[in-house]
């Protein structure tokens, strides 16, 4: 392939030639093969990835353990309760909060505020995501299950924002946190919300069941995935960025337990120094057993943390190696295709 300019001289001079969908979608998106592409190449596939909450739908019957079936609290309440709003484009982390009081919120995409985009892409079936449905069964109209799922996810996502932005101060917070387009006004938001409510967007039958719940607690989601699917270490979302964080989090309860054991041992020593308890056989046996436990318990706890760390490191090393081999195989295929005459 001959070398050439990566972009034209007119790139930054004018943007009038952009297509309507291009103006509304992100600049780039990631394919299932982890390569970068234009979202307009497969809009339906992009919408499915950007809006569908399959991982939460898999555990819907257990979501009551992670949150309450009620709309999320408005943004002003979130700040009043010392929660930090974190902008997160991952739809499966939308309205998920961590023990550190960080609340993940996905910004409202521009394309969900455009009626023409809804009519063209959210209410019709096209692209690769619906190919299986069209191939496996006859479709009586243009709205297949795939499109209905994306449509309900989009409505549910809008419904969550209706609850988050109830007051004018909520709109100011959303604009300050880059959750809404900067040109959004309170009058526009009022009209938008009133039309959504009049059209039944808050009806449970019209939205994805995930949005029957508001905020979800990440620690509980991790426990649900650990017990339901056996993902003991990673859970729903792996929260550790370094092995030091993992060790610190696991060693904290071991440290607290060690301090409690030290207090109990001190109390037992005082008890053995008294005439009444020093001659009590049961208390002496309990003291002897607890002494042995106080020696072995912390050592066993530290050893378990070390085993968990080594196991996690081994899994990450294996997965990284396998992913690297797979990716470089794809790179080689693309290189061969580009070099072919």
Automatic annotation (TrEMBL):
<keyword id="KW-1133">Transmembrane helix</keyword>
<keyword id="KW-0472">Membrane</keyword>
<feature type="transmembrane region" description="Helical">
    <location>
        <begin position="250"/>
        <end position="272"/>
    </location>
</feature>
<protein>
    <recommendedName>
        <fullName>Subtilisin-like serine protease</fullName>
    </recommendedName>
</protein>
<dbReference type="InterPro" id="IPR046536">
    <property type="entry name" value="DUF6601"/>
</dbReference>
<dbReference type="Pfam" id="PF20246">
    <property type="entry name" value="DUF6601"/>
</dbReference>
<keyword id="KW-0812">Transmembrane</keyword>
<feature type="transmembrane region" description="Helical">
    <location>
        <begin position="292"/>
        <end position="318"/>
    </location>
</feature>
């Amino acid at each position: 392939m001959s070398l050439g300019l990566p972009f034209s001289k007119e790139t930054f001079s004018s943007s009038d030639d952009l297509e309507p969908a291009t103006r509304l979608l992100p600049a780039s998106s990631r394919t299932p093969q982890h390569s970068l592409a234009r979202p307009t190449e497969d809009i339906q596939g992009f919408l499915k990835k950007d809006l569908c909450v399959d991982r939460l739908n898999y555990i819907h019957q257990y979501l009551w353990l992670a949150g309450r079936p009620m709309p999320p609290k408005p943004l002003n309440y979130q700040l009043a309760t010392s929660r930090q709003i974190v902008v997160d484009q991952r739809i499966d982390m939308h309205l998920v909060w961590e023990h550190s009081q960080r609340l993940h919120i996905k910004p409202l995409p521009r394309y969900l505020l455009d009626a023409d985009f809804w009519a063209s892409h959210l209410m019709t079936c096209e692209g690769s995501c619906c190919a299986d449905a069209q191939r496996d069964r006859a479709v009586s109209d243009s709205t297949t299950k795939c499109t209905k799922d994306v449509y309900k996810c989009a409505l549910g996502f809008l419904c969550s924002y209706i609850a988050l932005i109830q007051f004018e101060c909520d709109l100011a917070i959303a604009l300050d946190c880059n959750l809404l387009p900067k040109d959004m006004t309170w009058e526009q938001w009022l009209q938008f919300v009133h039309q959504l409510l009049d059209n039944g967007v808050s009806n449970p039958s019209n939205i994805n069941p995930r949005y029957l719940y508001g905020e979800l607690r990440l620690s509980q989601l991790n426990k649900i995935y650990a017990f339901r699917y056996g993902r003991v270490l990673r859970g729903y979302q792996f929260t550790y960025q370094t092995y030091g964080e993992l060790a610190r989090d696991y060693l904290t309860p071991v440290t607290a337990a060690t301090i409690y054991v030290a207090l109990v041992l001190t109390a037992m020593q005082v008890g053995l120094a008294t005439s009444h308890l020093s001659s009590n056989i049961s208390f002496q046996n309990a003291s002897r057993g607890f002494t042995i436990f106080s020696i072995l318990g912390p050592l066993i706890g530290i050893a378990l943390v070390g085993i968990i760390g080594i196991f996690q490191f081994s899994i990450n090393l294996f997965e990284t190696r396998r992913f690297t081999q797979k990716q470089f195989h794809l790179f080689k295929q693309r290189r061969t295709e580009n070099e072919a005459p």
